[in-house]
Amino acid sequence: MSKATPETKEACKTIFLFLGVLTALSSIGYYAILKLNPSSIYVGALMISPTVAAFIILKIKGRPISSLPWSLKELKYLKRSYTTPILYVSIAYALIWIFGFGDLVNTERIAQWSEDLGIAASNQTIVIVVMVFLLVTVGVIKNLGSTLGEEIGWRGFLIFELRKVMSFKALAIVSGVIWAIWHFPIINLIYGRGENLLLHMSAFTIMIVGMSVILAYYTFKSNSLWPAAVFHSIHNIYIQKICTPLTISNDATAFWIDEYGFMIPIITTIFAVYFWRKAEKEKL
């Protein structure tokens, strides 16, 4: 077995230092969310903690922030990172509606959208089209601030350090598991200590690991953090603001819908296998 090189040892130290700083910063954010008033300002502080941790490590290591992959030379990866989440979420929700794990369409949500838009509720189709268009354009851009707070740290910094010590396949899984565990306190807050907590955590972890494979692929192919930020933003908006709100729940819905049910993780895993093999063929 070959000995670890100085570069490998340095990368390992950097990774563990990043995780240590991230844990400390995140603990402050989670304390504020769980013990104080769980307002959006505390959630925002939590979401930027991966980036703040990355900036701190760069400062400690004497590396400039400009060393992160800020540039984007090929727009095609930005376009693909935008359409990929729409595709897998659409497939997942189509299956949910077809198999009766949820029904279309939630008229209460449409009525709320109608009020927000100032369009008569009788024009349901127009209300849906206008709101969906605004959410996947303006909504995604507004949400980029939050997703950048995570992605500068996860994809802009962490996976490039992991790449120094492990293969694409390994770093995709490791970064996904770390990312999932980082979310566990929030899932615990949502579902409490109910009997289905582990189920929802498992579903979320499967989804996040699958996403991490795709995100790592787009990041390394583009050598940029921007595709990951856009991907993350459209994923959140399309699920949380569009598909889930338009779905009418029934007794089976909780086990299949949203990021904490199993339909999206199943479809995401299928997509991840495709990108996994694609990365292998392209020798990423």
- What distance lies between the first and last C-alpha atoms, to the nearest angstrom? 23 Å
Strands, count: 2
User: What spatial form do the alpha-carbon principal axes imply?
Assistant: globular
Percentage of β-strand residues: under 5%
Helix content: over 70%
Order of helices and strands: HHHHEHHHHHEH
Mean pLDDT, nearest integer?
A: 92
Radius of gyration: 20 Å
Largest sheet: 2 strands, antiparallel
Helix count equals 10
- For this structure, the quaternary state is single chain
User: What count of domains describes the coordinates?
Assistant: 1
The parts where pLDDT drops under 50 for at least 5 residues are none
Structural class: mainly alpha
Please outline what is shown here:
This protein has about 280 residues and is mainly alpha-helical.
Defining key terms:
284 residues; mainly alpha; two-stranded antiparallel sheet; 1% strand; globular
Topology:
Elements: H1 6-35, H2 40-47, H3 49-61, H4 75-98, E1 103-104, H5 107-117, H6 124-162, H7 168-191, H8 197-222, H9 226-246, E2 247-248, H10 263-281
Helix pairs in contact: 1-2, 1-3, 1-7, 3-6, 4-8, 4-9, 4-10, 5-6, 6-7, 6-9, 7-8, 8-9, 8-10
Structure description:
There is one protein chain. The chain is mostly helical and 284 residues long. The protein has one domain. The chain is 76% helix and 1% strand. The protein contains 10 helices and 2 strands. Helix 1 (6-35) runs antiparallel to helix 3 (49-61), helix 3 runs parallel beside helix 6 (124-162) and helix 8 packs parallel to helix 10. The longest helix is centred in the middle third of the chain and has 39 residues, at 124-162. The protein is globular. The model has no long low-confidence stretch (mean pLDDT 92).
